[in-house]
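Work Package 4 report. The design task specified in the project plan requires that, given a folded chain encoded as structure tokens, an amino acid be chosen for each position. We show below one input record used in the internal validation round.
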């Protein structure tokens, strides 16, 4: 047994089994009055069809069509249809980081990074 200390930086990095590398970050992109998402190289990967968007929070983001907010994944697939009146990222709430706060009328709820309602409104 060796008495040498190995730091984290010296340990070989292995990808986690069963996990794919993270996709490139998608950036909100606007043309005219419609929003979509592009790569850092400005290649549009999610069509410019939304009235408003929020930046991705890992796997999903909120998008507004008309007066309602829903959620899409990084492939542009609808995860939650537009049904919320208001959405924001709960960055400031210490115990709710990584969640979206959503409202329907005067009822609030929380959506996780997979688009699942953690607390229904």
């Amino acid at each position: 047994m060796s008495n040498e200390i190995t730091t984290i930086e010296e340990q070989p990095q292995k990808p986690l089994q069963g996990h794919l590398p993270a996709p490139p970050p998608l950036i909100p992109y606007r043309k005219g009055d419609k929003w979509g998402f592009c790569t850092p190289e400005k290649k549009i990967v999610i069509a410019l069809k939304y009235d408003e968007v929020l930046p991705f929070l890992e796997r999903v983001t909120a998008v507004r069509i008309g007066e309602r907010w829903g959620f899409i994944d990084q492939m542009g697939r609808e995860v939650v249809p537009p049904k919320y009146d208001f959405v924001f990222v709960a960055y400031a709430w210490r115990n709710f980081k990584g969640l979206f706060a959503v409202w329907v009328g005067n009822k609030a709820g929380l959506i996780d990074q997979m688009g699942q309602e953690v607390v229904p409104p």
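The mean pLDDT is 80. Validation will be extended to a larger panel in the next phase.
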